[in-house]
Amino acid sequence: MTDIRENLADVIDGAHAAGAVCDEYALADAILAALPDMVPDLAWSEIDERTAFSRRRYVSGGYIIEYRLHGQHFDLWVGHNATCADRYNTLESAKAAANAHHRATWFAALTGGDQ
After folding, report:
1. Can you give the pLDDT at residue 38?
2. 69 and 54 share a domain?
3. How many domains does the chain have?
4. Whole-prediction pTM
5. Which of 29, 30, 85, 95 could potentially form a cystine with 15 if both were Cys, beta carbons 3.0 to 4.6 Å apart?
6. Other Cβ atoms within 10 Å of 27 Cβ, number
């Protein structure tokens, strides 16, 4: 919580320096613009899995990345009841997509869906 508080204080300081403190909407816009960058990346756990289709699984909350043997790619599943996955060539690109989805979901929850 302290990091977010300090980050918000920095945003307000910057808005003050730019003369936006007297404009409540400009200050609110500056805060909203800074919020997505304050969401930390997902923390992943690696699970050794030996099935006919996969060898490794990476899990973070409702996000699951599976390394698929057939085609040698990574499937990203969003949500525990997901019925389809997005496919990525690298683990890093799958994690980046999960982090982007996580940030967008977090931000949408705070703003009522506005982005």
Report:
1. 82
2. yes
3. 2
4. 0.73
5. 30
6. 17
